[in-house]
Amino acid sequence: MPELSPWILATGVLLFVLVLTLLQRPRMQLERGVPRQLRGAQIVLQEKSVRSLALGLVAKPDRVYQVGGELVVVELKTRPQPRVYESDRIELSVQRAVLEAERRAPVSRRGWVLTHDPRDGKRTALRVDLMDRDELLALRDRYHALLAGRTAPMPARSVRQCEQCAYLQQCQQDFGDRYVAPSRGSLK
Amino acid sequence: MRRPDNQGDRLVRSSDLAKLGYCERKTRYENLLGARATPAQASAQIRGRDTHSSFHREGIELARAPRRQGCCVASKVLGESTRTGQLRSFRDDVMRRAAIGRLLVLGYYAVSPAMCRMLNRWPAAVQALRPVLTALAVLAFALIRCVRLARARGTNA
């Protein structure tokens, strides 16, 4: 048997990898920004409402992947900064809780926020540690208490958030603690 | 049993509950005065809806695209059994987490259709492969357990 040159072998391997990469290109384009842990995994649910009467919650996950024996929730957010906010964590936690309750399948305690920069279309995946069930149910009860007027609502953590709020004037009238310079406020 | 304020009967949407993470007063005002948005927020909402639509379309295409999950050799030899599931878990939990593993998975899916065609022609090969793949599945299962244990220790540390 003629001796196989290592160079021929290396070229063969390179060509094989190149062909595989080219074959996967359309899929790679569709999966841009998707964390590598979820690439190639099966999407089991997207944009479909899941409700749990027992929890009193309803959610519409952007995407739910199945990885191994677990479901993983993914939420897309259009924002210039690749950053996760508390509201994202709450939203994903609700999705996790209703999926676990209704589909009776284990859902990962870690979800993903996929930020989409509207300026250049760049997507960034950020991992989020989700709330446990008790914490979430306490928040749901607080929500009901707030709407019923049984609890005083807390303001936004930073006054900067109020600059873009459509209720700024009303809030300033009612509470008087959210002063924003007129030039920066959204309502003048 | 109905709650006295009747609020408990209503399902809370994840997006509504999420607003508490932004500002509780805003949630209260939206409920009392109706939803309001500044012009900047309104255009951001439109942009967000457009992005969501394309993300959804991409998801539909991804679901239709040929997936690298057709573990056809294992399915052919072992059927849809626990052992096949263990091999799949090994692929997802161990192989796909490393670049070299993903490359090996890609390589496997490039050659597996041809291997399946061969197995169709030689049923004796299916019988011969069964104990080999069963042993591999057992080994894979043991490895998955080790990896999960190591990850759990890493998280707790």
Structural account:
The complex is a heterodimer of chains A (188) and B (157). With 188 residues, chain A is an alpha+beta fold. Chain A folds into two domains: 42-153, Alpha-Beta Complex (Lambda Exonuclease, Chain A); 155-188, no CATH class. Chain A is built from five helices and seven strands, in the order αβββββαββααα. Chain A has helices spanning 6-30, 86-103, 133-147, 159-162, 168-175; strands spanning 42-45, 50-52, 57-59, 63-67, 70-78, 110-116, 123-129. The longest helix of chain A is centred in the N-terminal third of the chain and has 25 residues, at 6-30. Chain A is elongated. Chain A starts with 5 loop residues before the first helix and ends in a 13-residue tail after the last helix. Chain B folds into two domains: 13-64; 72-156, no CATH class. Chain B is mostly helical and 157 residues long. The longest helix of chain B is centred in the last third of the chain and has 34 residues, at 123-156. In chain B, helix 4 packs across helix 7 (123-156) and helix 5 (82-93) packs across helix 7 (123-156). In chain B, 20% of the residues are buried. Chain B contains seven helices and one strand. The interface between A and B is large, with 71 and 61 residues. Strand 3 of chain A pairs parallel with strand 1 of chain B, so a sheet runs across the interface.
Uncertain stretches of 5 or more adjacent residues of chain A: 184-188
C-alpha termini separation of chain A: 86 Å
Say how many strands of chain A there are: 7
Strand order of the largest sheet of chain A: 1-4-5-6-7
Share in helix of chain A: 25-40%
> Describe the biggest sheet of chain B?
none
Taking the alpha carbons of the first and last residues of chain B, their distance comes to 44 Å
Radius of gyration based on Cα positions of chain A? 23 Å
Instruction: Specify the oligomeric state.
Output: heterodimer
Tally of discrete structural domains of chain A: 2
Provide the succession of SSEs of chain B.
EHHHHHHH
Give the total of domains of chain B: 2
Based on secondary structure, the structural category of chain B is: mainly alpha
Averaging pLDDT over every residue of chain A, what do you get? 86
| Shape by Cα distribution of chain B | elongated
**Rounded mean pLDDT score of chain B:** 81
Helix content of chain B: over 70%
Q: What is the fold named in CATH at topology level of the largest domain in chain A? A: Lambda Exonuclease, Chain A
Please name the two chains that share the biggest interface, counting residues whose Cβ lies under 8 Å from a Cβ on the partner chain.
A-B, 71 and 61 residues
CATH architecture of the largest domain in chain A: Alpha-Beta Complex
